[in-house]
Structure formats: structure tokens, C-alpha cells
Specification:
SH3 type barrels; six-stranded antiparallel β-sheet; three-stranded antiparallel β-sheet; mainly beta; binds zinc ion
Length: about 110
């Protein structure tokens, strides 16, 4: 089970965007990377003839993937960046638990 999932809120703990918070829009488990909204923004020049679906030529901003180790999950209960533990509920479901406040972290929408 992944510690960080799509739609989680994370905070960046190192690199250029240190301190930024954003929503996870994509997780790439094999690469140990994820894409966070508004974090690690890159600009790409797009020509009018490109087949990328751009409406017009110009510069397109997109969020480049960052390494999972550069972010921390923000707890949905106490709103603090935290390490994540796991716990098995009485109903047998595995849930993520905040190491900070000890409460279960809910999945984002
Ligand atoms: Zn917490």
C-alpha cells in the first residue's frame, strides 16, 4: 500500500519548491516520483504545428514529477506534514495513520 496517493496534499521538504503545498495529481510508483499541482513547474515551448493539442503556439507550463523523498504527506486531521504509519482496522482494512496525531488519514477527493 502506498504512503502517498493521488489527491493527497503534500508539502515539499527539499529543493527549489521547499515549503510549497499542493495536491498530488499523479503517482508513479515504479519511478518513486509523483506530480504535485503547482510544484516543480516547467515551461515548454510549443509550436503551432505540434500535435500536443495546444490551441496556439507559445509557452505551456506544466508540473514535472518530483521524487517521493522530497515530499511529506500533510495529515488530513491535524494539517501537519507527517510521516505515515499503517494500521489494520477491526474490519480488516488497512489504513494510513499520522505519526503526529495518531489519527487515520483519509483519502483525498
Ligand atoms: Zn495528524
Amino acid at each position: 500500500m502506498a504512503k502517498i496517493k493521488t489527491n493527497d496534499t503534500v508539502t515539499v521538504i527539499s529543493g527549489r519548491d521547499k515549503g510549497k503545498r499542493g495536491k498530488v495529481t499523479e503517482v508513479r510508483p515504479k519511478e518513486h516520483r509523483l506530480v504535485v499541482q503547482g510544484v516543480n513547474e516547467r515551461k515548454r515551448h510549443v509550436s503551432r504545428n505540434s500535435a500536443r493539442g495546444a490551441l496556439q503556439a507559445g509557452i505551456v507550463t506544466f508540473d514535472a514529477p518530483i521524487d517521493v523523498s522530497n515530499v511529506m504527506l500533510v495529515c488530513t486531521q491535524c494539517n501537519q506534514p507527517t510521516r505515515v504509519g499503517f494500521q489494520i482496522n477491526p474490519d480488516g482494512r488497512k489504513v494510513r495513520v499520522c505519526k503526529h496525531c495518531g489519527q487515520a488519514i483519509t483519502d483525498g477527493k
